[in-house]
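README, section 4: Worked example with a bound small molecule

Sections 1 through 3 covered apo chains. Here we extend the same pipeline to holo records, where the ligand is supplied as SMILES alongside the sequence. The molecule in this example is S-adenosylmethionine. Nothing else about the input changes; the structure line simply encodes the ligand pose together with the chain.
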Amino acid sequence: MKEIHLDDKVKLYYGDVFECLEILPKNTIQTIITSPTYWGKRQFTNDEREFGKESLEQYIHRCVSLFSNLLDLIKENGSLFFIMQDSRMGSGISRTQHFSDKFFREHPSWKRNGNSKEVHGNRSKVTAHHNIIKNTSWCGIPFKIANELVDKGYIWRDYIIWEKPNPMPDKIVNRVRQSAEYVFHFVKNKSYKYNPKEISVIGKSGRPRPMNQVWTEAPNPEVSHSATFSPVVVERLLKATTDIGDWVFDPFVGSGTLLKLCLKNDRRFIGCDINSEFTRVCKRIITSYQPLRIYSHLSDH
Ligand SMILES: C[S@@+](CC[C@H](N)C(=O)[O-])C[C@H]1O[C@@H](n2cnc3c(N)ncnc32)[C@H](O)[C@@H]1O
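The generated complex, written as structure tokens:
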């Protein structure tokens, strides 16, 4: 675990998320919004600790263990959101987008097996087959993780379906296109911080009402990272469950979508990633934001 940036408003670490957990103070974080590498899909490092390269059962177990540790870490009225796409058995790790992108060509560590055409495409062993789940079937991963967390006693408040208007094209004709990811909201207690106006629309009555469960928003178009959050979705979650000055954590910080939103909205931020290119990108975001007046109105610094 390496400290990349530490001040009283932003902390950034390079390393494995489980190492990061060991050094974080308990009961200080208000909200966690995060998204691990999905199972058997893209890979961003050659590091065996990166999420998504294990067997299905190990992946689910690691996610459940991580998310329950995270729930234990947050404040009593805090929230955990994890954003995840399901995977189909038999599909493989994709490097397509990385291969065609100049940035990824210049940073071969972002590809699992280099950029040779021979290893390009569906080469994943973990997704090749399963003793029970037949090839081409959904695995139901986000739901399996959520069910286990419920069984451990955490409260599953919501799942929002984040629909992307421009999903990756595919050639299959006998099923619908995969265009959705799931946003799962977990809390420890029935009473948690929630600013309802941040997730509301004006209803037919002319009064605000909670938004519906399906949100159609594009992913972040600005960055090279190929698995980014939608800033619109994430900003809503952030503003609904935190106030100015609250600590927010993303253990899989990637291109820093949540980091930018925290800087913009005067929230304090902790981030971690196992890929040094991403932590470098995030360090640049922090240093280019620091000169701006942020948090100057907070009393606790
Ligand atoms: C889906 S991406 C996150 C994208 C991010 N939300 C954004 O908007 O750019 C998953 C990230 O998790 C990181 N990662 C995977 N396994 C990790 C681990 N064990 N510890 C820390 N980071 C990890 C990957 O390097 C990748 O950047």
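What to look for in the output: The chain has one domain: 2-289. Residues 16-17, 35-37, 44-45, 49-51, 225, 227-229, 252, 254-255, 257, 272-275, 278 surround S-adenosylmethionine (CB under 6 Å).

Section 5 describes how to batch many such records.
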